[in-house]
Amino acid sequence: MIPEKQPYSNLIETIGSLLQQGRQQAAQAVNTILVQTYWTIGQHIVEFEQDGNEKAEYGSQLFERLSKDLTNAYGKGFSRSNLLYMRKMYVSFPISETVSHLLTWSHYFEILKADSELEISFYTKQCQLERWSVRELKRQMRSSLFERLALSKDKEGVLKLAREGHIVAAPEDLIKDPFVLDFLNIPEQHQYLENELEEKIISNLQRFIMEMGKGFAFIGRQYRMSIGGKHFYLDLLFYHRILKCFVLVDLKRGEIDHQDVGQMNLYLNYFKKEEATEGDNEPIGIILGAHKNHILVEYATDSITNKVLLSKYQLYLPDKKTLQNQLNKLLE
């Protein structure tokens, strides 16, 4: 039998795929070389300073003069701020092999704005784990993600978080306190309803999932459960591919109370018996409210065997300085 000739359209598709792959590899190679070059420039600047040449020859004007001379000789890319961050990159990552070539210089430029070595280490690792874009990195840093996660841990937990990033290995790892939903653009004093909050989240679902963290797959909203002849509706339903379980999310406009905990416990029991299939772990419930009464929550969840997690959300960026002060006290 004579084999059919390859369609011309397949040839075009194959060439296009190869071209796209080649361009991606070329861009990655250029990025790797650029990041390594900037690290080496930072090394030379630090060594120049340590030899005493900076004070002897240029005083405090080293970066201004370097910026001017390098720009005149080689063009753009040598602003004073760029040079300062090249230096900080070398100081923060003195071993060349610890520089991740999965990240671009634009990533490092943002990461190096962090105030502490713990933050720099965390955001570098988290960018690799989550494959954040530069835009998402900026949002997570503005929302003080490191501090929000760190304040739920002990001192050793904070250090581990900085070394390894935020790894979801247990239900408790799903919680941030608070969750920051600034991207919903709801004014802080606006008297919104729960269904309005839900509508805003659905309209910004991708960003909500990014705030929730890695591993969430959206299943549906207002998920109906028929229990004892009555219908109940869950606000948001997810499946977590890492923990291999359903995650039930209930939204509360005001304060979380004991009735909300009892209702979520009912939903979890239903999911264990009616929805979970072989291979699924027990479902997890997350109640998000604008406020929570810690004492009431403690008593309401004390004897519950299901995993019910409670957290606040807020509609504006947290005060980073306040969070940093709280974290410093924890570390001390």
TrEMBL record:
Protein name: DUF1016 domain-containing protein
Gene Ontology terms, MF aspect: nucleic acid binding
Residue stretches making up the YhcG PDDEXK nuclease domain: 173-327
Organism per entry: Flavobacterium faecale
Pfam name, any one: YhcG_C
InterPro entries for this protein: PD-DEXK-like_domain, tRNA_endonuc-like_dom_sf, YhcG_C, YhcG_N
Annotated ranges, domain YhcG N-terminal: 15-148
PANTHER family noted in UniProt: NUCLEASE YHCG-RELATED (PTHR30547:SF5), UNCHARACTERIZED PROTEIN YHCG-RELATED (PTHR30547)
